[in-house]
Design a protein that fits this description.
The protein is built from seven helices and twelve strands. The chain is an alpha+beta fold and 295 residues long.
């Protein structure tokens, strides 16, 4: 087991389908109606973490007996490499804590939230995922990532290679606006915003001009992110693009600068060196530098 696996994320599952049918198209192919949960979900939908529920025919006592047998077998395997054993034991303990944690179970229960709070985030998969993120932070989670992933087919959500404007207007921007504003306002209302850094970003932008499919393709030369809370100042716009949004015009900020700044806000020195798989010592933020104008 590789050491870095100790820091892998725990992923939630959303097993239900959406409530609104959206026209989606295979890349440059046929069109289909898809019930996209990012466009709308049923209020009764739930999140869960795969593997953290006991099977119906396994009682808690029966599960404890299995744990006891496992421990006995583990003690008999004394010739195992000690580092691997310690890593495995840690993951077993984490798995058991997930199975037995009432705190986590409560955090995942977004239906316990008042309907007004849920509606403020938007009754979509992304909106309710942002609400779940707030609940996980309240429960003690240090890092939470919310993805708006593809649903149905490739190039059908934010990867807007075709029919961009209609998709932005119909469900992408309305869903995002409700969720992001709902999260920021909710954190502020609960006096959590100053201690919680919210970063909205993607891995690239879109071309400044449209393609033949009324969409925009991948573009790495300039794009924007938004930061709120956790020490970030309000109302600042840092950097500027040209009128076409195609290149940086003034005060460029690199992704590595953002990484260094986030590390700094977390109380970590971005120049800290770690060893890669080849044993080379490299700074955790690469060549990035802390951008104090963000504070």
């Amino acid at each position: 087991m590789r050491p870095s696996s100790a820091y892998d994320p725990v992923l939630t599952n959303f097993p239900d389908e959406g409530t609104q049918e959206i026209i989606k198209q295979r890349p440059y192919g046929t069109k289909h109606l898809v019930k996209d949960p990012y466009a709308g979900i049923d209020p009764g939908s739930r999140f869960h973490i795969g593997g953290t529920q006991l099977q119906k025919n396994v009682t808690v006592d029966r599960f404890r007996q299995r744990l006891s047998l496992r421990d006995q077998l583990s003690r008999a395997r004394r010739n195992l490499d000690q580092i691997a054993t310690r890593t495995l034991d840690r993951h077993r303990q984490m798995a058991w804590s997930l199975l037995s944690s009432a705190k986590l179970e409560h955090a995942l229960d977004i239906q316990s939230e008042p309907n007004r709070e849920r509606d403020n985030y938007g009754m979509t998969l992304f909106g309710q995922s942002c609400l779940l993120a707030r609940r996980l932070v309240e429960a003690g989670s240090k890092f939470v990532t919310v993805f708006w992933d593809e649903y149905g087919y490739l190039n059908t959500d934010w990867d807007t290679h075709w029919n961009q404007n209609a998709r932005l207007k119909s469900w992408l921007l309305p869903g995002f606006d409700a969720a992001f504003s709902g999260l920021i306002l909710d954190l502020e209302k609960r006096d959590m915003l100053d201690e919680t850094l919210v970063v909205w970003m993607s891995e690239h932008g879109r071309t400044p001009s449209f393609n033949r499919q009324a969409g925009r393709d991948h573009w790495s030369r300039v794009y924007s992110i938004a930061m709120a809370g956790g020490g970030a100042a309000t109302g600042n716009v840092i950097g500027e693009s040209d009128v076409m949004g195609g290149d940086v015009l003034d005060n460029p900020v690199s992704p590595k600068d953002i990484l260094a700044t986030v590390f700094h806000l977390l109380g970590m020195d971005p120049h800290t060196l770690v060893r890669d798989r080849l044993g080379q010592r490299l700074p955790i933020a690469g060549t990035g530098r802390v951008r104090s104008e963000i504070f």
